[in-house]
Design brief:
Number of strands: 11
Number of domains: 2
CATH architecture of the largest domain: 3-Layer(aba) Sandwich
Bound molecules: S-adenosyl-L-homocysteine
Number of helices: 10
Structural class: alpha/beta
Length: 280
């Protein structure tokens, strides 16, 4: 069942506290796209859910695995209006839990990696709501695996950094000298808009312009595309107007391994009906 309003009816949430049924909120990671990357625990909670609040990044195929009687509430966020919408989402979670429901807050990837799961958990814990967090496969793990790009490799990278590419204050948001150190893999989430600045700053702070770089589009789905190049050349091989979000950027020597380790065939995945894609 779909629903336009975010929360339960006021009369329901105003039930007297001692007679209230106990609600519970599960913050659940849905993984990066391929429904088979859901955890067993996530699937069980989806099957038992009474209310599901979900994001834009969660595919229809994953929602189709949920209890068909569950009320579905879409709480996708607009890029420019995060904070206002986030407080509305927190409130809706509280209201549904107070009304005694088994609530699943379903998020793309992992709830604690650029997913605002921490903020939602803070709001729920502050109100004494029963909560749990079910981790998911984050985009960095899912996309790198399906693109044949090991995030660490003894010959190339001894550490990995997961970085936001959403540069709110221009380039000053990030510690560029640290990001430009050798021997590590950088994974930029939300980096498509800031890609030129990211490339420029990494080169300016000392990464060689021929450092391998990849942009992975709709990773782990039947429409996955991997654009590979270097910090200097990637844009000439990529017409960003044709790129379909979500996209992930990986920078570092490990990206070169894609040429030989690229095992995933999205066309075959499509034919086998693995996944037909992200919700938009
Ligand atoms: N909590 C999520 C991240 C949310 S931020 C996680 O753990 O994966 C949203 C960003 O995640 C997108 O802008 C994109 O950079 C990345 N992302 C999520 N799913 C993706 C996918 N299937 N392919 C490529 N990038 C993805």
């Amino acid at each position: 069942m779909k629903d336009d309003s975010n929360g339960p009816a006021r009369a329901e949430s105003a039930a007297s506290s001692d007679r209230r049924p106990r609600g519970r909120v599960s913050l659940v990671g849905a993984g990066p796209g391929d429904p088979e990357l859901l955890t067993l625990k996530a699937l069980r909670r989806l099957e038992a859910a009474e209310v599901i609040l979900h994001d834009r990044l969660v595919s229809e195929e994953i929602l189709a695995l949920a209890n068909p009687a569950a009320r579905r509430v879409y709480v996708g966020k607009v890029r420019s209006d995060h904070s206002l919408q986030q407080s509305g989402i927190n409130q809706a979670l509280l209201d549904w839990a107070h009304s005694g429901k088994q609530v699943v807050r379903l998020k793309g990837g992992d709830p604690f990696i650029f997913g605002r799961g921490g903020e939602e958990l803070e709001a729920l814990v502050a109100q004494g709501i029963e909560v749990e967090v079910i981790p998911g496969i984050t985009a960095a793990s899912g996309c790198s695996a399906y693109a044949g790009i090991p995030l660490t490799h003894r010959d190339h990278a001894q550490s990995v950094r997961l970085v936001t590419g959403h540069l709110r204050n221009g380039s000053s948001d990030l510690d560029w000298p640290a990001l430009a150190s050798p021997g590590q893999t950088l994974v930029f989430y939300m980096g498509l808009h800031g890609m030129q600045e990211i490339r420029r700053q990494l080169i300016a702070h000392g990464l060689p312009p021929d450092t391998p770089m990849a942009l992975i589009e709709q990773g782990t789905t039947a429409r996955q595309r991997v654009h590979r190049g270097t910090l200097a050349t990637l844009p000439s091989s990529l017409d960003s107007s044709l790129v379909q979000p979500p996209t992930l950027i990986i920078v570092g020597g490990v990206v070169g391994l894609h040429a030989t380790l690229d095992w995933f065939d999205p066309g075959e995945a499509n034919a086998r009906g693995w996944d037909t894609g992200h919700r938009r």
